[in-house]
């Protein structure tokens, strides 16, 4: 870590608007969420669409509408909730999107995310069958779980974390964003560009650290204040910096490590102490994330604010920042080792995998990560393709950028891709969730969040074929009851941790039966 000149002072940082924070009493911090660091997790994944093998062009919006015909038939809308508690909808730009049900652990969030893949594959397969009847057997639908299309347009994979309201947006900017910027060392999906290979698909599209903007600029954390819970106690941390991962382990690690960092931040805020990661606040987050993405060695140089008692900023590598967070997390887990409900049951395993990843990158052995780090798997495949190409073509020839880009896209194609699927089939990619567990998550919501109650409601409404609607916090049943009377029943679930039916909920369900 070296010293650089011109330290940026705090007054230079834009002020962040932060509603509700001042109204919360600091003493109530550990009273939220059952007196622990318990958290709600969720993932929103947008998918890209294209079609090949047709004589006539098939625009993505047309294919997306074909995909969603079963959804429209069922719900009379392209925006609906499913029996497993998740939300399925067609987003702006004709991107099919799946938002997982609320979960209590990264592993459960992973399971729900994989259920979303399975549901999307089913919809895409049905659309492909229809296109083949219209355009011939060569028609293929390609559904990409990635973040950049062939035109260079970016779309997102958003993570949601329930966060205590006492943690301010400035705390997020200073203490969380440096971790998010550098975690692409193990969480990046990898991207082929004309200028070379990059770790992250999203890095080139992100401008600010924390902002409410989504169109004029893309922040790493969006501040739109929609907690879907008691707004006096919680905020929903909407992280949009991450890539869509194919690797199960990468998705799990992305969520689990971020959870541990949030636990450390919450503890520091509650105790009024300085976080050990305070010196790593980034001076220019946009510049930093692009620099990290372009350097697979982890040695990209990043300007950080530095120590409070120093007048000079510091320059650190991405790897050294990640090590600082890892060491702080190791200390945190050790201090809370006897608190059974404070954090992850598998925290020790998370720390071990995290440490191994940083060690591999530091020693230049990134190839050893190809069994779970998406960018390492993809880069290994690309390098092997280049070697085979040289052996089978004239001396001095090499694959074109278009050929490499096609290989990149195929890694993310969940319906007609073969690259990633072959790796899983040959046990070259670690898996954490079985196919039977994924199938279960397609139809069943998590049993320990309010998604369980939402799922019960939707199942009952569908069984009776009555008009209904819902969102994350409200359930509404309408239409005629069996008595012929007009029915309108509502139920609100503001507590995302609520999973047990109350007498009031059972009475609400009885109005549907």
Automatic annotation (TrEMBL):
Q: What's the domain of life for this entry?
A: Bacteria
Instruction: Give the UniProt record's GO annotations in the biological process aspect.
Output: modification-dependent protein catabolic process; proteasomal protein catabolic process; protein pupylation
Gene Ontology CC entries for this record: proteasome complex
Show the Pfam families listed in the entry. Pup_ligase (PF03136)
Q: Does the keyword GTP-binding apply?
A: no
Q: Which UniProt keywords apply?
A: Proteasome
Which terms does the record give in the GO molecular function aspect? ATP binding
Segments for region (Disordered): 1-30
PANTHER family the record matches: PUP DEAMIDASE/DEPUPYLASE, PUP--PROTEIN LIGASE
Please give the name of this protein.
Proteasome accessory factor PafA2 family protein
């Amino acid at each position: 870590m070296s010293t650089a000149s011109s330290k940026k002072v705090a007054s230079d940082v834009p002020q962040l608007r932060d509603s509700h924070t001042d109204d919360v009493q600091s003493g109530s911090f550990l009273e939220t969420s059952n007196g622990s660091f318990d958290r709600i997790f969720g993932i929103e994944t947008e998918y890209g669409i294209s079609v090949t093998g047709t004589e006539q062009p098939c625009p993505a919006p047309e294919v997306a509408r074909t995909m969603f015909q079963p959804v429209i038939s069922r719900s009379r809308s392209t925006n609906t909730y499913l029996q497993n508690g998740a939300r399925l909808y067609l987003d702006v730009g004709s991107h099919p999107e799946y938002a997982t049900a609320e979960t209590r652990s990264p592993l459960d969030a992973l399971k729900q995310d994989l259920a979303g893949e399975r549901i999307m594959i089913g919809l895409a397969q049905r659309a492909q069958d229809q296109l083949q009847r219209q355009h011939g057997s060569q028609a293929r639908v390609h559904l990409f779980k990635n973040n950049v299309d062939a035109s260079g347009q970016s779309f997102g994979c958003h993570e949601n974390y329930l966060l205590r309201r006492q943690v301010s947006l400035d705390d997020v900017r200073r203490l969380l964003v440096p971790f998010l910027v550098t975690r692409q060392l193990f969480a990046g999906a990898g991207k082929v560009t004309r200028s070379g290979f990059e770790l992250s698909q999203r890095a080139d599209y992100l401008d600010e650290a924390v902002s409410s903007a989504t169109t004029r600029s893309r922040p790493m954390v969006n501040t739109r204040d929609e907690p879907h819970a008691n707004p006096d106690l919680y905020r929903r941390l909407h992280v949009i910096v991450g890539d869509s991962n194919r690797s199960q382990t990468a998705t799990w690690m992305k969520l689990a490590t971020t959870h541990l960092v949030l636990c450390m931040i919450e503890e520091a805020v509650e105790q009024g102490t300085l976080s050990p990661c305070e010196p790593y606040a980034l001076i220019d987050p946009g510049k930093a994330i692009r620099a990290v993405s372009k350097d697979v060695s982890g040695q990209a140089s990043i300007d950080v604010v530095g120590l409070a008692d120093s007048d000079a900023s510091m320059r650190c590598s991405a790897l050294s920042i990640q090590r600082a967070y890892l060491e702080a997390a190791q200390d945190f887990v050790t201090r809370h080792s006897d608190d059974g409900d404070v954090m992850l049951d598998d925290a020790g395993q998370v720390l071990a995998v995290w440490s191994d990843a940083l060690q591999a990158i530091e020693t230049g052995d990134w190839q050893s990560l190809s069994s779970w780090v998406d960018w390492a798997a993809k880069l290994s495949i690309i390098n092997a393709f280049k070697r085979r190409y040289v052996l089978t073509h004239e001396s001095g020839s090499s694959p074109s950028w278009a050929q490499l880009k096609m290989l990149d896209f195929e890694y993310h194609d969940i319906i007609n891709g073969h690259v990633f699927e072959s790796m899983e089939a040959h046990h070259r990619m670690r898996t954490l969730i079985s196919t039977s567990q994924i199938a279960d998550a397609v139809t069943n919501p998590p049993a320990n969040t309010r998604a369980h109650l939402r799922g019960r409601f939707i199942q009952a409404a569908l069984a009776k074929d009555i008009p209904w609607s819902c969102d994350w916090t409200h359930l509404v049943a309408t239409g005629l009851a069996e008595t012929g009377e007009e029915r309108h029943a509502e139920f609100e679930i503001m507590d995302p941790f609520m999973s047990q039916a109350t007498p009031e909920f059972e009475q609400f369900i009885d109005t549907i039966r």
